[in-house]
Amino acid sequence: HPYSVIDRFFVGIEPQWGGIDAIEFTQDRPVSYVKRFGVAEGEVRVRHLQPTSRPNLVNLRETFIEDKTTFFVYEPWGISLREFRQLQPIFRLGEVEVATICGQVLKGLLYIHEELGIVHGKIQEGSIYIMENGDVKIANIGERMIQQAEGGAKGKDIEAVGDLVKTVLGLQSDDGTRGTTGLLARDFAGAACSATIEELLNVSVHLGGAPRFVLIRVTDHP
User: Fold this and answer.
1) Residue among 106, 95, 93 at smallest CA distance from 137
2) What is the DSSP letter of 91?
3) Exposed (0-12), middle (13-18) or buried (19+): which is 190, by Cβ within 10 Å?
4) How far apart are the C-alpha atoms of 126 and 139, rounded to whole Å?
5) Largest Cα–Cα distance in the chain?
6) I want to staple 71 with a disulfide (CB 3.0 to 4.6 A). Which of 64, 103, 130, 184 is the partner?
7) What is the pLDDT of residues 48-65, one digit of tens each?
8) Crossing angle (nearest 10°) for helices 180-191 and 95-114
9) C-alpha dihedral (183, 189, 191, 194), degrees to nearest 10
10) Superfamily for domain range 79-208
11) Domain locations along the chain
């Protein structure tokens, strides 16, 4: 149990706020968020559990397991893509910004698939976070580690990135007003069903994906 560790100071949050159950404020240690996750007996698979350190993940620092409850200690995360979209029309996301987000998500997935040897399974607006410095990170990696089913389909993660593009850019319906970049974005979303991560990363670069995400205020563009 993390709260019982000597010389560690945690502030509990009740009820849970933004997925956070507690925040660690221990001297000479980085601030961390604690997330409590309940699982049924026998469903915790510890084989894949490990700390992570990757620019495109909300990194898992520690894991504590007590009975049927798992406590994940994460680095702090920013604002979710779902929350960000709720800020419209103050902020807006165009094809280039979405390409940047998807490029970083794909890099995170490449690490999850190849280095961690698991699939994420829940790539969606609520599991993608935008940090203050512009980094884009995939969240909930600890939960995905302990709930990992053998032989999970990596293709589902890749397809989910395409669905993300369709949702954020509203590509489900074609109003016929999109330019060349918009058409490329539509092709990207469609290709996610059959392409590899490496192929999609190449497409995201052609769409104008920058190294980091930049917030764009509508008021800055009259």
Assistant:
1) 106
2) B
3) middle
4) 9
5) 62
6) 64
7) 899 999 999 999 999 998
8) 20
9) -170
10) Transferase(Phosphotransferase) domain 1 (1.10.510.10)
11) 8-74, 79-208
